Amino acid sequence: MMGHAHALSGIVGWMAVVPLLDGHEFFGLRFDLGPGEIVAGSLVCAGAALIPDLDAKSSTITQTYGVVTRGLSAAFNWIFGGHRNGTHSLLFALLMGGLTQALALWSELAVQIFVFLLLGIAFNGLGLGNDKNRLASEVINAMGTAAVTLALYASGVNYAWIGVAVAFGCLLHFAGDMATELGVPLLWPASKYRFGRNIGFTTDGKVERNIVTPGLTIAILLLSFYLFPWPELLPQA
After folding, report:
1. I need a surface site. Which of 1, 17, 79, 175 has the fewest CB within 10 A?
2. What pTM was estimated for this model as a whole?
């Protein structure tokens, strides 16, 4: 799938599992997910849903932070054997989730910086800014990302679950690519078999543009009305 569809799937995926996670303990982590955690988790998951494509030089995430992400893209492409190989495996999802969770245990400041970076990736994937004016697009993205990151920090969002959200975002990326005709090698490096190959729709084809993307957008709206206490958020007469 294209970057915007992956980002949308990350938002939908996180919002969909909130009722299952909220108030429960999994993997030794307690999930108390208020409105701030729902928003933060959705955007973190959206950004993480683009990470597996860091192995492709033309991908949304590779173009997000200039020479830094382009350098990482070249390294990932070499380490993981090209596009849609190692970065599209269960091993990679576990690796990214584990490293992120370790970061959360190590430093709160490091987590805030990582959240800022992920939100920038998410907003870029969602199309924030104008591609016809790259500089303006980058400034708008940076300002929006900083504002949202600070707002989430001020609201006291607890990112104890961030490793789970990142791993889940990667898994959602795999699910999206498995729905396309190329498939993904989930069991890499043990096997290069591509799950979903030749049975899905064409990337950026009519199905993705006219059904998948609008469907994900509608799902976000419906889940928003379900998850957020809108009457409490509206001004009282």
Report:
1. 79
2. 0.91
